[in-house]
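Help needed: design a sequence for this.
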């Protein structure tokens, strides 16, 4: 089994981050890193109490952070020591022991570079219906522009794993386009066969209002269009290597 670094980007996720950290630690990874993006609540304290190594994103490297989730992931890759980096969102209410191991297991095959979680997205008390930006923005654009990735069930999902050596060679979109950007870039560089999926059951998390989802959809759409060759402007970090 490859050594595993779990990287959890967090911004004001005090109510949920401790449980996510504790579930990840059960799988005995090399480390669990919480990348705190200047939280103003007790996120850092809760994560540290649960057993994570907490790093404020400013202390990882001497560059002013670019606001956005992708920035935390990029800095997390820089700080990580494991051969495989498992990314997990800090707001999950359904992350369970065993999921880190499931996401890392396919790397026993040296041809695999990226592992995406496959799951049902809950919505309120309903078992399905979540993932509105995924279903209404990401999947339609991928079907049209990158049909070879049509089989990926959760292209925007925050639970996935990547070889650290691979991640260091790829750009990271600073905002919420980071997941789909990495998906497209890995497929281009290593082929679609280098990406696989593992079933993690269902996912529950905090739901955003439509106005917030609209902003997320803008970034996701711009990322996919830019990767397809359109002259879109997106903010992203250059590869670390």
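Sure. Designed sequence:
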């Amino acid at each position: 089994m490859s050594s595993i670094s779990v990287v959890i980007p967090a911004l004001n996720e005090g109510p949920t981050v401790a449980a996510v950290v504790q579930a990840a630690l059960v799988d005995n990874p090399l480390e669990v890193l919480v990348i705190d993006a200047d939280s103003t609540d007790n996120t850092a304290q809760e994560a540290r109490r649960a057993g994570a190594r907490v790093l404020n994103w400013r202390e990882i490297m001497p560059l002013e952070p670019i606001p956005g989730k992708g920035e935390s992931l990029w800095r997390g890759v820089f700080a990580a020591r494991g051969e495989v980096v498992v990314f997990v969102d800090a707001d999950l209410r359904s992350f369970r022991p065993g999921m880190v191991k499931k996401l890392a297991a396919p790397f026993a095959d040296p041809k695999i570079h990226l592992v995406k979680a496959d799951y049902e997205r809950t919505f309120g008390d309903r078992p399905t219906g979540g993932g509105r930006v995924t279903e209404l923005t990401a999947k339609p654009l991928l079907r049209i522009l990158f049909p070879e990735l049509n089989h990926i069930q959760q292209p925007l999902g925050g639970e996935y794993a990547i070889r650290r050596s691979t991640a260091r060679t790829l750009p990271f979109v600073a905002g919420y386009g980071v997941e789909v950007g990495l998906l497209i870039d890995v497929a281009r560089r290593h082929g679609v066969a280098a990406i696989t999926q593992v079933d993690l059951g269902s996912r529950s998390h905090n739901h955003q209002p439509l106005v917030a989802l609209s902003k997320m959809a803008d970034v996701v759409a711009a990322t996919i269009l830019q990767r397809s060759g359109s002259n879109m402007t997106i903010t992203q970090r250059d590869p670390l290597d």
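The chain has a mean pLDDT of 93.
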